[in-house]
Amino acid sequence: MNLFGRIFSAFGRTRIGGWTIRNVVTPLDRKLYRWTSGRITISAMAFPTLLLVTVGRKSGKERITPLIYLRDGEKLLVGSSNVGLEQSAAWPLNIAANPAVRVQIGKSVRPYLARAGTSEEVDHYWPKFAAIYPPFATYAERSGVRKLFILEPAHET
Questions:
Q1: Could you tell me which residues are beta bridge partners of residue 72?
Q2: How far apart are CA 101 and CA 103, in angstroms?
Q3: How confident is the model at residue 27 (pLDDT cuts 50, 70, 90)?
Q4: Of the N and C termini of the chain, which has fewer Cβ atoms inside 10 Å?
C-alpha cells in the first residue's frame, strides 16, 4: 500500500474519518470516477475502485456507488460496511430487490449478477479484503457485521 493508502486507511479507521468518507469522499469519488473514467478519484489513488450501478428498490432510479473491490478470476467482491454503522448502506438492499447490476471499472461497463457471499466465502475472502483496505476490520468490529457481495458476470443474450 502506498503512503496515501496508509494515511487514508488510518483516517478511515476513525469515526470522523468514516463520516468524511461516507459524506464527502464517496459523493466526490462518484462524480470524479464518471467524469474521468476512473483515472482520477480519491480512493482509487490507493485502492482498486469500481462504480456499482444498482436500481433503487423504492425509487426505481439508478444508484451509483464507488466501492473498493477484490478480483477473483471473473468474480468481483465488494464489502458492505457502511463505515461501521449498524444501519446497512442502501446498495445491498437494492441488490436484494434486484441483483442485476452494472459495474464500471475504468472505461469498461459490464452487467453482473450480485449476491451476498456465503459465510464460507466471507471467511475465505475477508482477510484478503481487509488487507486491501484495513478499515474494513475496524468497521466490522464497530458494527459486528462482516458482509461481502459477490458480483458474477451476467451473460448478455
A1: 75
A2: 7
A3: confident
A4: C
List, in sequence order, every beta strand (DSSP E) within 5-118. Answer: 49-55, 62-72, 75-79, 100-105, 108-116
Tracing cell 457502511 back to the chain, one arrives at 82
Nearest-angstrom CA–CA distance, 101 and 52:
7
Give the separation between CA 50 and CA 95, rounded to whole angstroms: 16
Domain that holds residue 56: 3-153
pTM as predicted: 0.82
Domain count of the fold of the chain: 1
- The C-alpha atoms of residue 110 and residue 44 are separated, in whole angstroms, by 19
Full DSSP string of 51-79: EEEEE-TTT--EEEEEEEEEEETTEEEEE
